[in-house]
Amino acid sequence: MHPGPTVMGFFTEESRFILESHPGHLLIWRDQRTRYHQSNTLERHDYRGGGIMVWAGISLGGHTDLHVYHGGTLTGVRYRERYEILD
């Protein structure tokens, strides 16, 4: 019996971490008809600006370094042109 072909796979994972809580998840007690009063309004930052994204890859032959991106999204162009992740 011959062993099956060697399966070589390369797996990647990216995750986004928000560095501040989202105001939509806060419970605020307020009087009726005071929804838009200044005391009940919180400043909110854009989703893309308040977090980091981390990216890494792994295979049977090894792994990539852990890459951390501040703001924005990790796109194919971004890691090909700016970083040499797969080299």
Low-confidence spans: none
Major sheet size, sense and barrel closure: 4 strands, antiparallel
Tell me the strand percentage band.
25-35%
The share of residues in helices is under 10%
Mean of all residue-level pLDDT scores: 70
How far do the termini sit from each other? 37 Å
Number of beta strands: 4
Helix and strand content put the structural class at: mainly beta
Describe the protein's topology.
Layout lengths: L9 E9 L32 E9 L2 E2 L3 E4 L5 H6 L6
Antiparallel strand pairs: 1-2, 2-3, 2-4
In short:
The chain has 87 residues and is mainly beta. It has a domain at 12-20 and 50-86.
Keywords:
single chain; 87 residues; mainly beta; 4-stranded antiparallel β-sheet; 7% helix
What would you say this structure looks like, in words?
The protein is mainly β and about 90 residues long. It has a domain at about 10-20 and about 50-85. Helices cover about 5% and strands about 30% of the residues. It contains one helix and four strands; from the N terminus they run E-E-E-E-H. Strands 1, 2, 3 and 4 form a four-stranded antiparallel beta sheet that branches. A hairpin with a 2-residue loop joins strand 2 and strand 3 (about 60-65). The radius of gyration is 22 Å and the shape is elongated. The two termini are about 35 Å apart. InterPro entries: RNaseH_sf (IPR036397). One of its GO terms (molecular function) is nucleic acid binding.
